[in-house]
Amino acid sequence: MTNSNVLFQHGTLALLVPGLLDGTITMKELLQHGDTGIGTGEGLDGELMILDGVPYQTDGTGKVNIVSDDFTLPFANSHFAKYEKLMSVENISRPDLQSTIINKVKSANTFYSLRIHGTFKNMKARAVRKSTKPYQTLAQTAENQNIFDSELIDGTLLSYYSPEVFDGAAVAGFHSHFLADDHQFGGHILSFESVTGDVKFQRFDSLEQHLPTDNKEFMEHDFTKDDIINDIHSAEK
Q1: The pTM is what?
Q2: Closest by alpha carbon to 111, among 204, 34, 210?
Q3: Lowest CB count within 10 Å: 7, 60, 120, 144, which one?
Q4: How many CA atoms are closer than 13 Å to the CA of 47, on its beta-carbon side?
């Protein structure tokens, strides 16, 4: 029996900061906790979006792939979708969209997800090329990203909102990925000018945090030496 009130998170964004980029959960395992989600592959191998149980990866070249069950990830969110329509929007800017959602849902102190399908203007997205051991830090690895632009594109934005108090475990505010309807464009959203479409909303009352306790590097790392918050904000927003 699935529980749509639970957000499952494997790893933390904090562990990416010093370059703890080993894949510590398989896609098969992740899909047991949800049919919807986002994440990244081992070595920051692209940007992941799970839609309707299908795991899509936008790799560092911009190609969209369906990944196998044995694909591994250092960080991911997933949940079982039970979205409700929140509103329709027309040519609304990203800042206005986010502020409207925040004011409408009144859920600043809990986790929730958005699924927006529509037409996006001037979408800018990115994906990082896979790195190998010895891994560099998140800031260094993120420099090896490719940025993709589209003037007008139909697709799905999938976003998770995390409360300020969880900044570091996740990124406070919205963390959003995108996948085009034709599966020819995707990635971590950097910006878009406006969107026309339907906004769906799903709130969670529980967070299931799963940590990679079998990973020696994670268990022995001293996070007090890392500039976690600033590095996450620089790389993820």
Answers
A1: 0.95
A2: 204
A3: 144
A4: 30
Query: b or e along 133-168 (b: 16 or more beta carbons within 10 Å of the residue's beta carbon)?
Result: eebbbbbebbeebeebebeebebbbbbbbbbeebbb
Query: Residue 133 has which token pair?
Result: 């051991």
Pick the CATH number of 6-236 from 3.20.20.140, 3.30.379.10, 3.40.109.30, 3.30.1330.80: 3.30.1330.80
Q: Kindly tell me the burial class for residue 10, based on how many C-beta atoms sit within 10 Å of its own C-beta (0-12, 13-18, 19 or more).
A: buried
| Residues 27/131, Cβ–Cβ less than 8 Å | no
How does pLDDT run along the chain (237 residues), one tens digit per residue? 689 999 999 999 999 999 999 999 999 999 999 999 999 999 999 999 999 999 999 999 999 999 999 999 999 999 999 999 999 999 999 999 999 999 999 999 999 999 999 999 999 999 999 999 999 988 888 788 899 999 999 999 999 999 999 988 888 999 999 999 999 999 999 999 999 999 999 999 999 999 999 999 999 999 998 888 887 777 776
Torsion from C-alpha of 170, 236, 18, 58, nearest 10 degrees: 100
Report the candidate in 3, 18, 41, 11 with the shortest Cα–Cα distance to residue 169. 11
**Rg of the chain taking only CA atoms, in angstroms:** 17
CA distance 28 to 164: 30
DSSP conformation class of 129: P
> Could you write out the three-class secondary structure of 204-216?
CCEEEEECCCCCH
- Cα Dmax for the chain: 50
DSSP run (H or E) holding 125: strand 112-128
